[in-house]
Amino acid sequence: MILRLIWRASAFFGALLLALCLTVILLGTQTDAVIARYSLNDVFVQGIDQDAHIFIHDLTTDFRIPLTAEGTRNLGFTDTPDGQHSLFISDDCQGHYGLCQMDQNGHNKQLLSADLPRNAAPGTGASWSPDGTRLAFVSPAPNDARQPTLYIFDYLSHQLEQAPTPIYMDWDAPLIWERDGRTLTFVIAQPRIFVGYQYDVESDSRPKAIRTWLKGSWNARANVLDAFGSIFLVRSKTLSEADYDLYLLDVSSGAASNLSNTPLISEVDAVFAEDSPTLAVISAVGNWHMLSTVSADWSSWHMLTTSGGAFLATPHWVNGDTAILYHRGTIEQHRACIVSVETYQNECPLMWTPNIVFLDTEE
Predict the structure, then answer these.
(1) CA neighbours within 13 Å on the CB side: how many for 242?
(2) Residue range 25-39, pLDDT digits in tens
């Protein structure tokens, strides 16, 4: 009897403490706190077990709370357009494996679809249609985990459809919805050329090629990094060049422009701001990396920080595009940092768990 009372009291106070922690974090969103939500499983590191959660994390206080249950694997999540819910892949959503939904505080988990390939994991290029009824994402195919495939999830009917295409796509390929809400546009780095495609999600036809760019480019390590409006951002070089440059590929006009064109400097990674065509760019000169902001028309360029011989990686805009979260360190160990694009104040490192990729942030 005594043990039962002690257990009940422990459970009660544990739940109370969790509620208080979540309250503190959520109240922090009303101030200048930097709040991130992420899953450690989305970095594909080895040996993840107890950290197989989705977390809510106040970066200003290093206060971190798991939103998912102990012993479950949860990854590849995105917010619904209304900002009220998060969708993610879980191996224990109401006792099933599939696409799961929860409130942003971790409550009210609901299984939306069990019709998913076992290795499914929506990438960072996942995109909602303008009316918020369809989610497009790239994930491994059901019968071949090495072959990423385009999927369309109907949020109203909870139906998941696989696009009829053998085209190879990167798992984090950025996707753009056209205004009609039924047409997807994307770019693929094929051998020695970039090809733009359009796909009508309401037809049975395959995606059709509509544009080509940079014929003769060497794409063995090229990437389609991001998209903004009708512009796709890619990283590429010719076979004879040693360093990579950033190119802007315009689907509407068919134009291609070299954004960086910097001899002896190789661009490593770049991402558009949420609400403007300004980019956070990581460049390398030998073993030195630097993080800069660059406008898409090259009218402004500002260096924010350098690495001092370490590497910089995964820039991610936060706080209304006024700050950038990034990684600094070595392959074996790296920590998260944050730099203001307005004051250049750089806090590095933050108190942080190593090997984290930022998936979603909010003020």
Answers:
(1) 7
(2) 444 444 456 676 776
Q: What is the mean pLDDT of residues 313-319?
A: 85
Residue 240, phi-psi category: left (phi > 0), alpha (psi -120 to 50), beta (remainder): alpha
pLDDT digits (tens, 9 = 90+) for 170-220: 777 899 999 999 999 999 998 889 999 999 999 888 899 999 999 988 877
| Amino acid letter, 118 | R
Task: State the burial class of residue 242 (Cβ atoms within 10 Å of its Cβ: 0-12, 13-18, 19+).
Answer: exposed
pTM of the predicted protein model: 0.81
3-state secondary structure of 286: coil
Report whether 328 contacts 311 (CB < 8 A).
yes
Q: Determine the Cα–Cα distance for residues 35 and 355; give it in Å rounded to an integer.
A: 18
Overall average pLDDT of the 111-119 stretch? 79
State the sign of the Cα–Cα–Cα–Cα dihedral 16, 22, 25, 27. Answer: negative
Separation CA 351–CA 265 (nearest Å): 31
**Residue 58: how many CB atoms within 10 A of its CB?**
20
Spatial separation of the C-alpha atoms in residues 31 and 361, rounded to whole Å: 15
Residue 23: what residue type? T
Nearest to 231 by CA among 199, 277, 281: 277
What is the Cα–Cα distance from 141 to 130, expressed in whole angstroms?
26
